[in-house]
Write a structure and sequence with these properties.
Elements: H1 3-59, H2 64-68, H3 71-90, H4 98-129, H5 140-163, H6 167-173, H7 178-184, H8 186-200, E1 209-212, E2 217-224, E3 228-233, E4 238-242, H9 245-248, E5 252-253, H10 255-260, E6 264-271, H11 281-287, H12 294-308, H13 322-336, E7 347-350, E8 358-365, H14 371-388, H15 402-410
Antiparallel strand pairs: 1-2, 1-5, 2-3, 3-4, 6-8, 7-8
Length: about 400
Amino acid sequence: MTIKEYIDAGLQHLHVYSEGFSDLLYFLALVIIMGIITWIVHVLTRQWLARIVMKLTKRTSTNWDDLMFDQRFFNRLGLLISPIVTLVVFRAYDWTGINILMICINIWITISFLLIISSVLDGINRIYESYPVAKNRPIKVFIQVIKIFFYCAATIVIISILIDKNPATLLAGLGALSAVLMLVFKDTILGFVAGVQLISNRMVNIGDWIVMPSSNADGDVIEINLTTVKVQNWDKTISTIPTYKLVSESFTNWRGMQEAGGRRIKRSVNIDIYSVHYLSDEDLENLKQSSLLKNYIENKQREINEYNAKVVNPLDRRRLTNLGTFREYMEAWLTANPDINLNMTHMVRQLQPTATGIPLEIYCFTASTQWLVYERAQADVFDHLFAILPLFKLKVFQYPTNMEWMEEKGA
């Protein structure tokens, strides 16, 4: 090869290199310009447009616009406007590398649009939760299903942009993957079906007190979503239960108690059988001093005297017992107690005797369903019961302690 040929070959390589270098500079210039335009539009949307709209929403009398248009909405709106402006500006350029840039911008627009849709759906959910009906009919499950639909649609659109295919072609191929999709989204599908059943049948609402021992849940429901139900237990821990488990397994919902307006007291005290006896005339006179028992004893004595006047054998005569009179006293005391809900069942009943005595059960409902008020009312009932028993010469059955055994031995 001659010197001239070497020189020509070198010039040719230099020309090709210079063309490639110029294309690279052109690409970098476009990227820098696009970045500047995007940043300017983004700042204008986030700062100026957001401030104007936020001021307008605060002047309105309704609060739904405040819940809909938050700062996150405008941040995502800026992400959408910026690539659209960039796409309009650079679409007129005819350059071989512009196709890659357009693909990136289209994917950016798709993701930004998805984020805006998600923000709008969250705003709709916040607006709905501001109304009282949301406590009984939450729509968060449906909002999440709509989100999943848009996520899937955006994924298909992005893939179609990358491979330059029609999205309809990809949708046609999803039929073969339906079994795989069913397996992957099994919990989501089960959660959606269970969520619809929970909401439509009002099985669980936000704020309900539920007890589910299998999931160590005992507290208030704070959230119901597509896949899980969150329960804040009384020790302030959070139990997360799969939504479909509330349909497939049993649990206790205390909403009925709260709506009824009374919480049940059902507790018994074992009475020593050997302390049950007939009341003497002196005992009756002492018990008559109680305003709760005076009318009962007088009416009962009159009824018994009329019956005994017709009976010859002393064994057949009727007499008042201390246990029966004590039951009447407790029923009258419960009726006069303002902490007891008299519109619901209230009684003092005797159960089947056992080896530990005669169970005397207090069955009633408190006038308040609040836990602290309920426990206080229940304690007051049994405090009075234990204190008043000796006046009826009744004893509570309990296993003897060492002190009692020593006293009996010394006697």
